[in-house]
Amino acid sequence: MNAYTLASRFHFRLTFWKGVFIVLLILGMYSTFVRFFYGLGTATNLSDQFPWGLWIGFDVLCGVGLAAGGFTLAAIVYIFNIKKFKPIVRPAILTAFLGYLIVIIAILFDLGRPYRIWHPIIMWNPHSVMFEVGWCVMLYTTVLALEFSPVVLEKLRWNKLLKIIRNFLIPLVILGVIFSTLHQSSLGSLYLIVPEKLYPLWYSPLLPVLFFISAVAVGFAMVIFESFLSARAFNKHLEKSLVSELARVMVFVLSLYALLKLQDFARRDAWSFMFINRTETYFFWAEILLGVVLPMIILAIPKIRQSEKTLFGGVLMVILGFIMNRLNIAITGMESYAQADYFPSWMEISVTLMIVALGFAAFRMAVKYLPIFEKKDHIEIPYRKQIKIRKVENHQLQKEKISN
C-alpha cells in the first residue's frame, strides 16, 4: 500500500456540519469534565429549590418519548401482522435504541452520585415510581439491543445466531411493548405526587395516559423525520405511501390526545387558567397550537400529506410541540411553586447538545454501514417471460435504428 492510497483512505473533508459537530463535542467534553470533577453546583444552575432541570426535562422525558416509535411499529408489524410497515421497523428500532442510550447517559450526568446508578438492581423499592421506571428502562434497552442485533448479525453473516434471535423475535417485541408502555406512562406518574407544585394547566390525574398517547404520536413523527434526513444524506428513504399512512395514523392519535385534554379540563373546571395573563399561559398555548392543533389540520388533508415539504413541516411541529410539553411540565409548570427562575447554564446546554449530536452521528454511521433500510424483495421473472421481454426490447431498438 503506497502513501497516496493510505492518505486517501484516511482522508477527512471538513464540512459545515462536521465543524459544528466538532465544536459541540469540544464544549460538551469540557462541561463533562467540570461536572464530574467539580460537581453539579459548578456546572449547572440547579439548586435545592429546583433540582430537576434541562437534563431531566429534555434529555430524559423527551428522550424516552422520542424513542417511542420503536415499540409502536414493532407491535404493528410483528403482533398485529400489518406487514406493509415492515420497512419502517428497523429505522424505528434504531431510533429507539439510540434514544434510550441517550437517556441513560443523561441520567449519569444528573445523578449526584452517578457511580450508584446500579443500586436499583439489588436495592428494591417496588412502591417507588422511579424504581419502576429505572427497571423498565434497563430491561427495554436490553430488549432493543436484541431487537436491533439482527441488523448487525446480517452484516457479519453470523447466520446461526441470527436464526436463534429471529425465533425469539415476537416474544421480545411483546416484552418491549409491555416495558415501554409501563415506563412511558410512569414518567407521567412521577408528577402525580406533586398536585400542589405543578401548575394546573399541566397537572392532571390523566398525566400517565397523556404521556403515553403523546409519546406514541411523537414516535411516529420521529420515524418520518429521520426518513427525510436519511433521504437527504444517503438517498435512502421510505416509500411515500408508507410515510403518508403513518402521518394519517398520527392525526388520529393527536385527535385522541386533544379529546382527552379537553375532557380533563372540563372535569377539573380548569378553563379559567387558560386565559390568565401569565407566562405559563403563553407557553401552554404555544405548545397546544404548535404541537397539536396545526399538525392535525395540516396532516389531515391527503394532498398536503403527499407533499414532502408540508409533511416534513407538520411532523416537525409535532416534535417541537412534544418537546415544549415535556419542558413545560418539568420546568415552566414547577417554577411558580418553587419560586425559582431557572434557566440552564451554558454547560447544561452544551452537554445536552453533545449527547444529541452523538446520537445523530451514531444514526448516520449505522445507516451508512448497516442494512437499516431494507431493500425491496427481488421479483423473480419466469424464463419464458424474460425471452418475451427481450424480444419486445430488441424490436423497439430495431424500430429506433430504422427511424434514425
Task: Outline the structure in words.
The structure is a single chain. The protein is mostly helical and 404 residues long. The chain has two domains: 54-190 and 363-370; 199-339. Helices cover 75% and strands 0% of the residues. The chain is built from 17 helices and no strands. It has helices at 3-9, 16-38, 40-43, 54-66, 69-79, 86-110, 119-122, 129-156, 159-167, 169-189, 207-234, 240-268, 279-299, 302-306, 308-338, 346-369, 383-403. α12 (240-268) runs antiparallel to α13 (279-299). The protein is globular. Mean pLDDT is 85; it is low at 376-387.
Q: Termini, distance in Å?
A: 50 Å
Helix content: over 70%
| Helix-strand topology string | HHHHHHHHHHHHHHHHH
Mean pLDDT: 85
* Low-pLDDT residue spans: 376-387
The class by helix and strand makeup works out as mainly alpha
Strand residue percentage: under 5%
How many strands in all? 0
What coarse outline follows from CA principal-axis ratios? globular
DSSP helical segment count: 17
Domain unit count: 2
Main β sheet profile: none
What is the gyration radius calculated from CA atoms? 24 Å
How do you describe this structure in short?
The protein contains 17 helices and no strands.
